[in-house]
Design goal:
This protein has eight helices and no strands. With 224 residues, it is mainly α. It has two domains: 91 residues, no CATH class; 130 residues, no CATH class. Helix 6 packs antiparallel against helix 7. The longest helix has 35 residues. The radius of gyration is 32 Å and the shape is elongated.
Amino acid sequence: MFGAETPLLTVVGIVADLRYSKLDAVPEPEVYLSYARSGNSQFGLFGFTALVRTTGDPLALAPRIRTLVSEIDKTQVPDAVMTLEQALADSIAPRRLNLFLLGTFAIAALVLAVIGIYGVMAYSVTQRMHEIGIRIALGARRADVIRMIVRQGMRVTLVAVGVGLTGALALSRVIEGLLYGVQPRDPLTFVVAAVALTATALVACWAPARRAAQADPTIALRSE
């Protein structure tokens, strides 16, 4: 674009990096010229983008904007008038769809995990009702029974969360292209995920443990 035949230009300021095509695009060197200068054959003009700030409905000004552009240069015909929010939404639409699908699958996986943990703990408690009845008959407090069952369930859960975090760290680079402003190995994200999974498992273990602690020891002992 610039060469020996290019007329001298005066630099009047420097602006910060701008991502105008994609949010994850690497900023490239750019030069901003006035509209009058850009019409020079030395630089060429393939089109331009005009930004209009308004306090009202932006789209209501579209006819007036078209008229003003036509008055300035009749060769320029605005072919797309949209709000900044619409332009941003269009640029991130594919990424938003991918993240929505990932989020849906993640929620489904969390629900299945809760159902699975609850089912395993409920089955385990049912199989151990005779043992639990003996413990209660020998003087074990109901709080001790709840603590024992929850502790056993959480021990398995913590091992599973550790294995899951290890796998997530190993596969974090796979989703790097879908992230913006977040590192693929963001510590806060992993901590929040681990705490959420642990809390969910705790709730799933609590219900069967509470039901076992409220069992009548005479009925539990009579079951075998």
